[in-house]
Design goal:
The chain is an alpha+beta fold and 639 residues long. It has six domains: 173 residues, P-loop containing nucleotide triphosphate hydrolases (Rossmann fold, 3-Layer(aba) Sandwich); 81 residues, Translation factors (Elongation Factor Tu (Ef-tu), domain 3, Beta Barrel); 87 residues, Beta Barrel (Elongation Factor Tu (Ef-tu), domain 3); 55 residues, no CATH class; 66 residues, Arc Repressor Mutant, subunit A (Orthogonal Bundle), CATH 1.10.10; 110 residues, Arc Repressor Mutant, subunit A (Orthogonal Bundle), CATH 1.10.10. 35% of the residues lie in helices and 29% in strands. The strands form nine sheets. Strands 2-3-1-4-5-6 form a six-stranded mixed β-sheet, with helices on both faces. The protein has a six-stranded antiparallel barrel with strand order 7-8-14-11-10-15. Helix 3 packs parallel to helix 4, helix 7 packs across helix 8 and helix 14 packs across helix 16. The radius of gyration is 37 Å and the shape is elongated.
Amino acid sequence: MTTDLILGTAGHIDHGKTSLIRALTGVDTDRLPEEKKRGITIELGFAELVVGPYRLGIVDVPGHERFVRNMLAGATGMDLALLVVAADDSVNRQTREHLDILRMLDLPAGVLVLTKCDLAEAGWIDLVEEEVRELVEGTFLQSAPLVRTSAATGAGIEELKEVLQQAAAQAARVRASSTGPFRMAIDRCFTIAGHGTVVTGSVGSGQARVGDELVVEPGGISVRIRGIQNHDRTVEEIHRGQRAAINLAGIHHEQIRRGHELASPGHLVPSRCLTVRLDLLADASRPLKNRSRVRLHLGTAEWMATVRFLDHASLNPGQSGFAQLLVRQPVVATWNQPFVIRTESPVVTIGGGRILDPDATLIKRPTEDDLKMLGQWHQGDETRRAEAALYFANLRDFDPETLPRTAGIRDPQATTSQLRDSGTLLEIPLTATHLFRVHRTRLEQLAERIADRMTRLHEANPLRSVLDRHLVFQPFLPQIPQPVLQEAVRHLREKKKVKETPRGISLVGHAPKLSQNESRLLEWLCRRYQEAGLQVPRIAELQKEAPKNQQSIPQLVAIAVADGELVELSDELVIHRQTLEEIQQKLREAFQQEGEGLTLSQIREVLGTTRKYAVPLCEYLDQTGFTRRDGDVRFLATD
């Protein structure tokens, strides 16, 4: 069985990368007339090499400093690298910068190659080899094999093929899986007469077949695969680790540029905010300050971005930290995807890192919980990473199916079940079929925000003992669904921080601040209701009777209801608690005497009242469980 991998070159201009690939494969990867004329590689070149059970799709990158952005585009999707150094020249500027880029891409394997060994003496070659070994110390190439070659004489070429097979075996153990959604960063787009739009790239994950429906992102443009080629061979399927030229239907070639990606529908989500782990190179010339503008290289794209640090004021050379990148244009990414940053001007590679949140919201003032979760996202196992993704979904509706993209989770349903069973993930029903999923800590934070809102409302309304739920929830709607807000209130109630009544909610310990006149007026109101029985006066009548503070009457009635001195049967009817107790006793005796249920008319006669008062009273008794209704007849609930 053949395993497909991407092999990329790296090294300074004129160090013989293209000649080396020609000696290995027989293919001249310089295809542009200008490249032939000038004798330098400007654009990406491609070839194929089979070594044992491994088929290597080779990406030959330019070495000139003016074309580093092209080199970065070609580096996307590499599984292993050839770091090339000319034996007659030794390590040079782009050797170092290309190595820095390869380090940021975190490749699992590579090979060191000395070229043009026919042009240098043995003693000088020994010195160059020593310098190369010193250069790669502490990197993924520290223990990589080094092969001395000459494209002109063919020396070392067969040995290099053997070494490449060993390196490919090492890379395959990490990178060979073709599972997951399809994704390919586009590095070229052109049109062919009679065929239409063609895009090329290195397949980063998954597989695709002729006829498949895919999406071009950013942009969400739906396309269909009309045909596929792999190194000039027409094929029916392409998969991870292969170079592909894909003929697309449904899009004009002018709608696509380098930096776009071709992916399975729903796999990638464009965003202008990325949360990242950022590493600044040890040899960076100066610290990276907060809100610095940088060139972000992600996939095959290059965009300007602003760096906002989350745990540092600035980043010194050699330091690492958490940051957010605010990108000028929407980009697409997945968890743990590598990126590189370069200065705005002069353009120099200064660092890179890994994506944590590919669809982030702005973190204005990070808390200890935020930083803890960022650490889990960066280094945690699958369950801890999934928890971090859930946490940073905040109060957005969390979909477990996004976990492969946001946390690299292989089995999102199993991981979600673990979080639910541990109590970390809470599920709140919005409808009969839709559950809102949220991290427990986020719900607790929402509960505290609601409590703060209630404190301010109580302070602004000192005579109001109970707050209307809609008034409390108003700042949070409609971004946060009301059932989620109600669940947060339930959390506060369990912690005995709030009280709930049919009329609203209030903070435990909150008591209206009454003046002496208001306290005397409240006592008068309660006596007035007690004397009235069921024939209670209207609020307007009470205001006419009150000697002073008439405008406070509605609030004082609400205070008495909250304290339990008065009972609210409906929006229109409030009675004294003693009156309710007397009514309930009369009804118990009447039910026992009749030995069966009572109709509304019978209850009205027992109480000697009118339908105006009997209807809301009976409905209240039903709601509170004192009676139960069966058609037109009511029974004592204890029966």
